[in-house]
Amino acid sequence: MNEPESYAIRLHPQAAADIDEAHERMAASQGNIYADAWQNGLRDTLATLATFPAKYPLAHENRLFQSVVHSCPYRAGSGATVYRLLYEIVADDDEAPHVHVLHIRSTSSTSATARASP
User: Fold this and answer.
1) CB 50 within 8 A of CB 99
2) What is the pLDDT of residues 97-110, one digit of tens each?
3) b/e map 3-31, b = 16+ CB within 10 Å
4) Which of 63, 65, 68, 72 has the fewest Cβ atoms within 10 Å of its own Cβ atom?
5) Number of domains making up the chain
């Protein structure tokens, strides 16, 4: 099967909640300007997954999911906390090819668990 030229990006509700929670924490601790810049950079990183999303390695939580889950790192700047975008690549005949982002995890937080996985 040939790789599609571009994948749509879809956020699972949990991933959207992860973004909102991280943004709120950052706004409270570092200010709205920093939090907004972090969120804009994250959205730019998400957009890069539209082309060749399989370039990133499997997440170490992969075994907890029923699908193959990749991990893409995101850091807003030097010294900033690294976040991991956990996602699956959906390219079957029933749906248009897309990247389904499941979680946005801070490397300082615990790993996704079977209970926390969508």
Assistant:
1) yes
2) 999 999 999 987 65
3) eeeebebebbebbeebbeebbeebbeeee
4) 63
5) 1
Q: Which two tokens stand for residue 73?
A: 């790192």
| pLDDT tens readout for residues 20-29 | 999 999 999 9
Look up the pTM and report it.
0.84
Residue 20 lies in a domain: yes
Tell me whether residue 89 is in a domain.
Answer: yes
Boundaries of domain holding 41: 8-106
Cβ–Cβ contacts within 10 Å for residue 112, how many? 23
- Here the CATH number for the domain that contains residue 71 is 3.30.2310.20
**Inside any domain, residue 27:** yes
The residue to which tokens 């804009």 are assigned: 40
